[in-house]
Design a protein that fits this description.
The complex is a heterodimer of chains A (about 200) and B (about 180). Chain A is mainly beta. Chain A is built from 1 helix and 15 strands. Chain A folds into 2 domains: about 35 residues, no CATH class; about 130 residues, Jelly Rolls, CATH 2.60.120. In chain A, strands 6, 8, 10, 11, 13 and 15 form a 6-stranded antiparallel beta sheet that branches. Chain A has a 4-stranded antiparallel beta sheet with strand order 9-12-7-14, with no helix packed on it. The radius of gyration of chain A is 26 Å and the shape is elongated. Chain B has 1 helix and 13 strands. The chains are: A mainly beta (about 200), B mainly beta (about 180).
């Protein structure tokens, strides 16, 4: 079939199919949509945006997302024991770990009841046994940065000791291309993982 | 030729459609995507309104605005003989929250003159000073640039004959 070009054709139907049984473009007063022949939304291939009202590409989105800081928070109880928090990709850098103790742990003492945070290679890499005092309300903060050269699993361990009650929240701030937060057990761990620190403007 | 013809009854066109003579093209011959190309086949920019629905495309402005208040990280490798390294250009209102410099612990023959600072051409140590090749050192300058400024790492070799490390900058805003 011969190709026809009609450069003076300035109007077509609201829904225009591109080729027989091809994708189609649908326009109405408020939007233009791109659809597959099966009516699903279709991908569009475009150049990287350079002006404010250009559409952006996934590459531009990924480039920005890879630089953003993420955080993970995990609630633990005095008897939570040990658990994994998240699997993080090679190249991830832990920027800080904070343990918040909102209330004094019942019957606890500083030598038998404590919290450690680290990974499967070093269980107290970020928070050691003596770093958090569960007999006092407070936030205990490690600013030690550590970059993983291979995929690793972050973990915590709560040693109950003489404690009869109490809780804490572990917050981890990290830069990573990939964090996989997994519910490793029956306790309420890793319930919150955000790709950024929230809008602070 | 008539200036323009409108035929709203047309519901199908060729898989690839040229918009005006030698104009941009819409390529629909690939069933997995629709491409917007220039006359030579290069990807074209597409102007759109700001997205308001989940399935809308978003503009560069929306992406830039989403990023601006977020904290980002920039990592730069350093070596004992790096000299001056340009990290990038901090844009207006870019705020440097912290700079951490750590070594590989193998800075052979380093001495009191050996130093790593981070700053800009106006103040080489505006953002960081106090390199210690045996420790991880962190400074929180909280400095906000009021105009576009190159951020640089200045490595003073001193007696060092080996060694490497990393400079980590946490910032909000944009460093190009």
């Amino acid at each position: 079939m011969a190709t026809v070009k009609k450069y003076n054709l300035a109007g077509v139907g609201a829904n225009v199919e591109l080729g027989k049984q091809g994708s189609y473009i649908s326009g109405n007063a408020s939007s233009i949509g791109f659809y597959t022949s099966g009516d699903a939304l279709q991908k569009i291939a475009i150049a990287n945006a350079t002006a404010s009202d250009h559409a952006v590409t996934k590459a531009q989105l990924d480039d920005i997302a890879s630089d953003l800081i993420q955080h993970i928070t995990v609630d633990v109880d005095y008897n939570s024991g040990s658990a994994n928090i998240a699997t993080i990709a090679s190249g991830s850098r832990i920027l800080s770990v904070t343990v918040d103790v909102p209330g004094i742990w019942g019957s606890a003492d500083t030598t038998t009841s404590y919290i450690e945070v680290g990974d499967t290679s070093n269980g107290s890499r970020f928070i050691r046994a003596t770093d958090v005092d569960v007999t006092k309300i407070g936030q205990y903060h490690s600013q030690y940065q550590y970059e993983y050269s291979a995929e690793s699993v972050m973990s915590y361990e709560v040693t109950t000791g003489n404690a009869t009650g109490g809780s804490a929240t572990i917050s981890i701030v990290l830069a990573s291309d990939s964090v996989s937060v997994t519910d490793y057990g029956s306790i309420n761990n890793a319930q919150n993982s955000n790709s950024d620190l929230g809008n602070i403007s | 030729m008539v200036d323009s013809v409108k035929n709203y009854g047309i519901a199908g066109v060729g898989a690839n459609v040229e918009l005006g003579k030698q104009g941009a093209k819409i390529i629909g011959s690939d069933s997995s995507q629709i491409s917007f190309q220039d006359k030579d086949g290069g990807a074209e920019n597409v102007f759109i309104a700001s997205g308001t629905g989940d399935t809308h495309g978003v503009t560069k402005t929306q992406l830039d605005n989403a990023k601006a208040p977020k904290v980002s990280i920039s990592k730069s490798a350093i070596a004992f003989n790096s000299g001056t390294i340009t990290v990038g250009e901090a844009q207006t209102n870019c705020t440097i929250h912290s700079v951490t410099v750590e070594s590989d612990g193998a800075w052979a023959d380093s001495n009191a003159t050996t130093e790593v600072t981070v700053g800009d051409d106006s103040d080489n140590a505006r953002l960081f000073a106090g390199f210690d090749d045996t420790a991880q050192v962190k400074v929180e300058p909280k400095h906000k640039y009021t105009s576009a400024t190159d951020i640089k790492i200045f490595v003073t070799q001193g007696g060092a004959t080996a060694g490497s490390g990393t400079a980590v900058i946490l910032f909000s805003g944009t460093i190009n």
